[in-house]
């Protein structure tokens, strides 16, 4: 399998360059170089994927890349500099959505997976979907579409039971040999609702930290789906982003003098006296 | 891939991610967030593989797969252009960042 070797080698190089690129991006002197390197690695990895043996639906793939890439490129190019944070949010959400959709394809395909893989697939799908809907809410808030912080009654109970239901359905779906389309659909509706409900009560000023956290989420989801697909490049890039994103979230929260707990569970402490006990 | 080999990759990658950005100055927080947002755009590759292995006879798989590739491509392209625009403001030779070396 010489072409397989070629693909794997290219993925390996891309993974190394991604890490070096991130490293370069954490210093102002080399930051610009870092993103350009990473960009070339991404193009290389994408092109090489077409040489993967047994790849069908190439026409659809190309169409989707041109459409998705084109829309994003155009919108990123034309957006005002001050509107950047919400653009980061929406692109990040799309990555999460992509990770969730990968899990969706694998679920509907009913590809036989062992226990660990099924669990990671479900987790990746949930985290990815949460990142997707959460980022959409974050985008709406920063863009001024959604002005108020909407707080449900008994917000944390809702969060808790919704999360429980999502995990329950997710694991059931991913462990069953051939889940019906309807079950998969319900699973994704629950996961998307969870992301929406989690981010809705958080105020606009805290959004950068939330976006950073959702960014780390997406990284994690990508890493998990990389495991499902048996693709080490996805695992490495995803988990590196997951870890660095978590650290970055902490740093940002610290710079704002706001502990992360207070931001994410703001409704908890914010809801007057009833907070702590629940 | 062996389960445990993947577990080791997870662990090492997590440490690498943590170390790689451990000394980042505050002004770079947002660009770096955007940069790592671009890096997880590698999900595009996974989406291509998923769509590429979907059953061409099953429209449900094709639609979800198409959606995955579309979103992945948007993540990669948008993440790149936004990060590049932010970092273009850090032209070499600016002098404020004395402490970052």
Key attributes of the depicted protein:
heterodimer, A: 278 residues, 78% helix, globular, disordered C terminus, B: 101 residues, mainly alpha, 67% helix
Describe it for me?
By secondary structure, chain A is mainly α. Chain A is about 80% helix and about 0% strand. Chain A is built from eleven helices and no strands. Chain A has helices spanning about 1-25, 30-50, 60-80, 85-110, 115-145, 155-175, 180-200, 205-230, 230-255, 260-265, 265-270. The longest helix of chain A has 29 residues, at about 115-145. The termini of chain A are far apart. Residues about 270-278 of chain A have low confidence and may be disordered. The model of chain B is unreliable at about 95-100 (pLDDT under 50). Chain B has a domain at about 25-90. With about 100 residues, chain B is an all-alpha fold. The chains are: A mainly alpha (about 280), B mainly alpha (about 100). At the A-B interface, α1, α2, α3, α4 and α8 of A face α1, α2, α3 and α4 of B.
Structural class of chain A: mainly alpha
- What is the N-to-C order of secondary-structure elements of chain A (H for helix, E for strand)? HHHHHHHHHHH
Q: What is the distance, rounded to the nearest whole angstrom, between the alpha carbons of the first and last residues of chain A? A: 58 Å
* Average of pLDDT of chain A: 88
The number of helical elements of chain B comes to 4
Strand content of chain A: under 5%
Biggest protein-protein interface? A-B, 103 and 84 residues
* C-alpha termini separation of chain B: 40 Å
What helical percentage do the residues of chain A reach?
over 70%
- Count of DSSP H/I helices of chain A: 11
In terms of quaternary structure, the protein is heterodimer
């Amino acid at each position: 399998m010489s072409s397989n070797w070629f693909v794997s080698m290219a993925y390996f190089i891309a993974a190394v360059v991604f890490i070096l690129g991130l490293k370069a991006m954490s210093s102002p002197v080399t930051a610009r170089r870092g993103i350009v390197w990473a960009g070339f690695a991404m193009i290389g990895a994408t092109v090489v994927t077409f040489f993967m043996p047994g790849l069908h639906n190439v026409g659809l793939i190309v169409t989707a890349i041109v459409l998705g890439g084109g829309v994003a490129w155009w919108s990123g190019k034309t957006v005002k500099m001050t509107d950047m944070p919400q653009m980061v949010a929406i692109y990040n959400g799309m990555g999460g959505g992509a990770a969730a959709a990968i899990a969706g394809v694998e679920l509907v395909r009913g590809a036989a997976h062992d226990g660990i893989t099924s669990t990671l697939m479900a987790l990746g799908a949930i985290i990815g979907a949460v990142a997707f809907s959460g980022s959409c809410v974050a985008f709406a808030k920063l863009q001024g579409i959604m002005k108020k912080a909407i707080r449900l009654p008994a917000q944390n109970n809702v969060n808790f039971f919704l999360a429980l239901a999502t995990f329950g359905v997710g694991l059931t779906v991913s462990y069953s040999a051939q889940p019906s389309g309807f079950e998969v659909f319900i699973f994704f509706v629950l996961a998307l609702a969870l992301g929406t409900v989690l981010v809705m009560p958080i105020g606009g000023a805290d959004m950068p930290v939330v976006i950073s956290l959702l960014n780390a989420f997406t990284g994690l989801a990508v890493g998990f789906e990389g495991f499902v697909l048996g693709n080490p490049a996805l695992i490495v890039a995803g988990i590196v982003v997951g870890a660095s994103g978590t650290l970055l979230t902490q740093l940002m929260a610290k710079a704002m003098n706001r502990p992360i707990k207070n931001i994410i569970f703001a409704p908890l402490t914010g809801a007057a006296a009833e907070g702590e006990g629940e | 891939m062996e389960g445990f080999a993947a577990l080791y990759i997870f662990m090492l990658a997590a440490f690498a991610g943590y170390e790689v950005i451990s000394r980042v100055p505050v002004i770079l927080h947002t660009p770096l967030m955007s940069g790592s947002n671009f890096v997880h755009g590698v999900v595009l590759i996974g989406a291509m593989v998923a769509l590429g292995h979907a059953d061409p006879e099953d429209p449900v798989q094709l639609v979800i797969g198409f959606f995955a590739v579309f979103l992945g491509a948007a993540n990669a392209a948008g993440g790149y252009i936004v990060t590049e625009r932010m970092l273009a403001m850090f032209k070499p030779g600016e002098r404020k960042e004395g402490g970052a070396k």
